[in-house]
Amino acid sequence: MDRLNGAAGAILCIVGARPNYMKMAPLLRAFRAHPGLPQPVLVHTGQHYDPMMNDRLFEDLGLPRPDINLEVGSGTHAVQTAEVIRRFEPVLDAYRPSCVVVVGDVNSTLACSLVAVKKSVPVAHVEAGLRSFDRAMPEEINRVLTDQISDLLYTTERAAHLNLKREGIAEERIHFAGNVMIDSLLEHRSRAVPPAETLRRAGVPAGLLAAPEGFGLVTLHRPSNVDQPDALAESLGIVRAVSEIVPLICALHPRTRANIASFGFESRLASERIAVLPPQGYLETLGLMSSAALVLTDSGGMQEETTALAVPCLTMRENTERPITVEQGTNTLVGRDRPRIVRLAEQIVATGGKRGRTPELWDGHAAERIAQHLARWLAARAAPLHA
Ligand code: UD1
Questions:
Q1: SS3 385
Q2: What 3-state class would DSSP assign to 312?
Q3: pTM for the whole thing?
Q4: DSSP string, 194-262
Q5: DSSP designation for 17
């Protein structure tokens, strides 16, 4: 098959925020490599813009510079979503793409899907069907709505299929493709930056890494854990308590850092057993995760990455949209239950903790499967009826 050219309509690939980049990088490569697909065009909404939240990850993942940057920046959910919608529409009109590919569950995912579907441009949602069943999470709203309006739903685990069926989504729109985030992890794992080097670059003494119990990695940024003073105080209290069991490296999201400063909580992390770092690049994070004795987090993606790396993960949430990481992987949901977290951390240090296995189709080839399926789907769509 000849490569379709611009006239056939590009594939517009959308990224907005940090967790999108490691999902889109393998997709872009697979789309480029597939002779039956139109050229991908990378659109960045600009939801994340800090060099540490953005540029470093682009570099680490070998992502090309975005073809278009909508530069929406931060704002309330309404403002951010509305700005993406407003600024994406003329881009869609100019490109008249054959489809729009969105990943994950951030505000940009929903905003771009909505613009496309209203202009009759097909939308493919990668990482569809995940449900926490917690509508207080902005991501859950984004997931449910994006899935309802997408034409193609590529899933990472079988539970997602059931969730979609329950919401009345037709079987033929759903395709179990595997996990593109794990494509990135497997591809870049050998280039991971050693933790000692990461601490050196951050100007933090590496003595913390010499502890016989190893070290733990902490990331916290969910509004439910960090936006209110009481919740943030509890979260930091837990970090402090766990640091007495195993020294901790905390890579702080800008929102968490800002809240710690505005509530005057800086002293709560002041300890020789806690190293506070800015958000890290992808290769640094991979290095920290792979070598950690445990990970304490409220991230969505790190629940999956620790499962793939077989590193025990304590997830500070009451629910997860990624149940397979608990059922088959190394993940345990712990909320902010401090006594339980302390007990589990002690157990992990003593025994190595929960052992898991790698879920089905988390094999490094999810993006290729999606490219193949998408090429067939677009070709069938372009073919005249009764041909
Ligand atoms: C977003 C996603 C979340 C994802 C997270 C990863 C939504 C609804 N949430 O949350 O699912 O897990 O990204 O980081 O889309 N900020 C900066 N620099 C940046 C980006 C943000 O300083 O480059 C600060 C700003 O103060 C901003 C705040 O972080 O107001 C929150 O950013 P926002 O994009 O609204 O959501 P995240 O919390 O990053």
A1: coil
A2: coil
A3: 0.96
A4: PHHHHHHHTT--GGGGG-TT--EEEE---HHHHSSHHHHHHHHHHHHHHHTTS-EEEE--HHHHHHHHH
A5: S
CB neighbours (10 Å) of residue 267?
9
| Ligand 1 neighbourhood includes 53 CB (under 6 angstroms) | yes
Q: Which residue owns the Cα nearest ligand 1 atom 7?
A: 106
109 within ligand 1 shell (Cβ under 6 A): no
| Amino acid code (one letter) for 12 | L
* Contact residues for 343 (Cβ-Cβ < 8 A; gap 6+): none
Tens digits of residue pLDDT in 162-204: 999 999 999 999 999 999 999 999 999 999 999 999 999 999 9
CA 96/CA 335 separation, integer angstroms: 45
CA angle 107, 110, 114 (to 5 degrees): 140
Nearest residue (CA) to ligand 1, atom 30? 74
Residue 267 structure tokens: 């002293």
Does any ligand 1 atom lie closer than 6 A to the CB of residue 262? no
Confidence of residue 379 (pLDDT cuts 50, 70, 90): very high
